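Lab notebook page, bench 4
Experiment: in silico fold of construct C2
Operator: M.H.
Input chain length: 200 residues
Purpose: comparison with the prior construct
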Amino acid sequence: MDHRSLSARLLARLRRETNGAVVADMESRGVHYGRSYGVSQHTIRSASKEFSPDHEFAKYLWQQPIRELKLAAVTIADPKRITTDELKFWFSGVENNELAENLASFLLSKTDITDSILEFYGSSPNVTEQYAAILSAARGSPENIPAELTIACAEKAAASGDPALLRAAGLLLSHATANPQILKYIDSIKEQVLLDEIIM
């Protein structure tokens, strides 16, 4: 079965769980998609298991303008297939914080390319992409978090003043406290109110 047919099959199953109230609530909070059926994230992940892992199908779904298919993509994709060259593809599909958080939690945090993810954070001018990147590192394995890149990312988050980035930076730093260099950095910024409030 081709990707179009598979996506139609998956979407038909998900549409049975349409919830207009959820769609209205998301729109009132400024979370917009080309199309959304308000299906719960838990239901989307459960329905996606039948198709996992299928990395190429996941990439096809990620390019669709439908919320439920984009969220399914991060469950169906294979973290072992994610390469540095693919990062731009995945990050460019992040349209809002819901997608950023799901991409981070269910796909990119399971890779072993945290250094490349943080380098992407440092180079991207897009705040939502930055949020996805720093959250991916924060939710990954602590031993994969490089100290120098982590500190550079925390500094960039502090300079931005963006609340979501600050929270993610605080999570990243607190997740890497086994690293002496990170601990030393945290001690050095305790007089900086914004980061201090988040870390502590």
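Observations: The two ends are 52 Å apart (CA to CA). The chain has 13 helices and no strands.
Next step: discuss at group meeting.
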